[in-house]
Amino acid sequence: MSIVYLLIPLGLVLVGIGLWAFFWAVGSGQFDDLDSPGWSVLSDDEATKRDAGPGSRTSDTEERE
Amino acid sequence: MTPAGPACFHCSEPIPAGIVIRARIDGRDEPVCCHGCRAVAEFIAGAGLGDYYRYRDAAAARADEMPRPDRWSAYDRPELVERLSAAEPGGARSMTVLLEGLRCSACGWLADKALRQQRGLLDVSVNPATARARLTWDPEVARLGDLLRVLEHVGLRPHPLAGDAAGQLAILERRTALKRLAVAGFGMMQVMMFAVPLYIGKSSGMDPGIRELLRLVSMLVSVPVALYAGWPFYEGAWQALRARGISMDVPVSIGIVLAFAASVWNALRGHGEVYFDSVTMFVFFLALGRYVEMIARHRSGSVADALARLAPVTARRIRAGLVEDVQAAELEPGDEILVRTGEVLAADGIVAEGTGRVDESMLTGESAAVAKEAGARVHAGTQNLGAPLRVRVSAVADRTVLAGIVALLERAQAERPRLARAADRAAAWFLGRILIGAAIVFAAWWFVDPSRAFSATLAVLVVTCPCALSLAMPAAIAAATSSLARRGVLVAHSDALETLAKADHVLWDKTGTLTRGLVRIEEIRPLAAVPEPACLELAAALERMSEHPIARAFIEPGASTTDATEVEVHAGLGVEGTVRGQRLRVGRPAFAGGLAPAQAAGHGFDGESWVCLGDSNGLVAAFRLTDQLRAEAVECVAELHRLGLESEIVSGDDEAAVARIAARSGIARFASRLEPDTKLARVKDLQATGAVVVAVGDGINDAPLLRGADVAIAMGRGSPLAQTSADLILVRDSLEEIPHAVAIARRTQRIVRQNLAWAIAYNLAALPLAAFGQVPPWLAAIGMSLSSVAVVLNAMRLSRDAGPGRGAGWTLRAPAEAA
Questions:
Q1: In this structure, are B501 and B646 located in the same domain?
Q2: Inter-chain contact A64–B134, Cβ cutoff 8 Å?
């Protein structure tokens, strides 16, 4: 049973990593909008539309606030 | 949606009888209620965005019937845009825009798609939760004005925000709340995992080393839960205590702190009970309830948002004879500004030149425009519907009347007096009982065995407090709040649910609440040998030239192609012009008869509800105008009556109009010609007799009524300021969910009471037995867990059978259904 002395701290470390990842995701705006990204998969013509305009530069590199 | 007729394809409002307007959508003809909705629907479909109608889960805002004068030309000027927007790398500009009418994620999708079709737009991110879009564009290619026009075309009215402090704050608050919730959730799961072996170990024996480890690790995990996730409750309790009051946070904090401190003490000294599982579960459910409430509050919009929607950010300043566009914040008292037809005033001032009509409904709730001449006071946030005005600015920014109202509401919201009172009673009741119980136990043990008095008292506090409070109330309220949100009822203050369950009176505002706030022609009385449709067509041709709210009533049914020439708009009286070579007047009866005073005399039509059409031979026709009762109002009033709530209308209108609506909606009691303060007095009178009053309103003039009532319900499309003082907001702008909200509130109360009864009964039975050593620990553990599970499951019943609402546009629309 002495294995639990290792497993429990290990579990805690994993929880810590999970929590850290969640904090990072929240901080980078992943949870700011939970609804609309779901709709984006339903539109398949995005690429062609965006390439159409000469002014459309690479918008994906723009950072969200 | 209603038996009254088909619903508008775009806004889902019932289409009034006699109106046949079709919009061409994807090769099919869809019925719409007005030309505004047709234009928006065809624009959306024409841009290849017809999917919006399939994915949306809330009806769109009703489009304005009349094309508004272009409000965005100021945003075409580069200098101004430069000052309002922020610089981005590569010479791009960015700006945050508040979108009025953004109701669901499909609306957000629509805005995103429509904008991305524009050249020069580099990036856009639409956030339906905060109703904001962040635009990044290339000023060389695109003009901000064009982007804003696109948004208006798809039915989302944009309001540019220069420096969006409120929005940033909301995002920050949401992120922090999510983090706290996550800490509580993760912590709760971990501690539960450690609690199970501890419980089992008690009965079957356990290695003391492992037991020690599990207890210490539980403590370690609980520390961030109690300190970080629980922090808002301590803060709230401290604030309440400093203000010499008791809020719900006080007993909650006492519960958390005592249970946590006792557990830490016992964990460190190595014997005695630990309650880390109770503590973490307690914090998690409380945090969950607060989170749901916060989301609802954000959706209902902040006071700052309301201000942004009402007052424009730009103005036209006249300096040395030249008109220049400036930021509203740059104006100073003494400046002169030009306010064109259809523009909203950016500052308070005095009319220096021009005769106009100003729509002050934002401030007064009065839908008819008020005539303004030189020397008259005008206020920021009101709209000029008449001729252009030159206004000498007297107050700007936070010194305007509008800003004063906003500040007042902000303070009222912060103080939340009504709410605190309701929470006080509940908290005092709980706290009182628990403390008395604990004191009795302490006293009893003091005489029996002083050494065990402290631990026994603590046990009573710890075990009763979290069980009764943590699960019974928050779980039920969280379930009810989210169930109502799915039906389109936002609960901005969850304490209101408790009061709503006890309500026995409903006070209704008339215009815009019981009625739709849109004037319609009810009766046409031809007075000469001209048939009805021709009368309507002639009147519509003239009214089309006017922007008066009444004009809308004519334009929709009489979609005439006839044009009027030589049109003169007489402020407050009516319109005069030549149609098909005939000089005509439409407007107040006396004015309309003015072309032939002798023949038109003695008609007997009063100016309150009649509009007349006249030519040089006397009156041609008379139109009786009324505001339409909402289709669902009758059923709603009857349903509320069945639930034991008496309805009463309080209105500022004249008696005849109120009596007519009262009779139609089946309300026996009504009061007319009331000012906002007399409306409030009516609430106070009712409350003095012991009644619990619900107020339903939509305008700023209802704000005192809403604030004075025990529960305030605001219409989703009413004034933003009315919404900020409301407890419940009807997002879908339909009354039909009110009886449902009352029913849910009552079921919530019932479930809370069942939960409390169960928790107390369990504790009363188990505590003494356990204290005297009659219950083996494993049985106590199972009983405790089952008790908690039962309470949570009971609360979940509220959200489970909520199901889809009755309103149209609520469920995902299948294409066939939408046809």
A1: yes
A2: yes
Q: Is the pLDDT of residue B341 over 90?
A: no
* Residues B623, B532 within the same domain: yes
B contacts of A38 (beta carbons < 8 Å): 105
Would you call B546 exposed, middle or buried from its count of C-beta atoms within 10 A (0-12, 13-18, 19+)? buried
Which chain A residues have a beta carbon less than 8 Å from that of B221? 12, 15
Claim to verify: residue B511 and residue B637 sit in the same structural domain: yes
Average confidence (pLDDT) over A42-65: 44
3-class SS letters over B443-512: HHHHHHCHHHHHHHHHHHHHHHHHHHHHHHHHHHHHHHHHHHHHCCEEECCCHHHHHHHHCCEEEECHHH
Residue of B122, B189, B812 to mutate for A, most A C-beta atoms under 10 A:
B122
With respect to residue B788, please indicate whether it lies within any of the assigned structural domains.
no
The domain in which residue B713 lies consists of: 493-515+633-742
Q: Residue A54's pLDDT band (boundaries 50, 70, 90)? A: very low
- Residue B212: count of CB within 10 angstroms of its CB: 13
Give how far the C-alpha of residue B88 lies from the chain's centroid of Cα atoms, to the nearest Å. Answer: 34
Q: Tell me if residue B359 is catalytic.
A: no
CATH code of B613's domain:
3.40.1110.10
The CATH number covering residue B128 comes to 3.30.70.100
Same domain? For B581 and B673 the reply is: no
Give the Cβ contact number of residue B366 at 10 Å.
Answer: 15
pLDDT of B393 > 80? The answer is: yes
Domain identity same for B688 and B607: no
Question: Do B577 and B724 reside in the same domain of the chain?
Answer: no
In the prediction, which pLDDT does B297 show? Answer: 62
Return residues 35-54 of A near B (CB < 8 Å): 35-36, 38-40, 42-43, 45-46, 49-50, 52-54
What are the pLDDT digits (tens) for B133-147? 888 888 888 888 888
Tell me if B140 and A31 make a contact (CB, 8 A cut-off): no
**B105–A1: do the CB atoms touch at under 8 Å?**
no
Question: Would the pLDDT of B589 be above 60?
Answer: yes
Residue A39 to chain B, least CA–CA distance (Å): 7
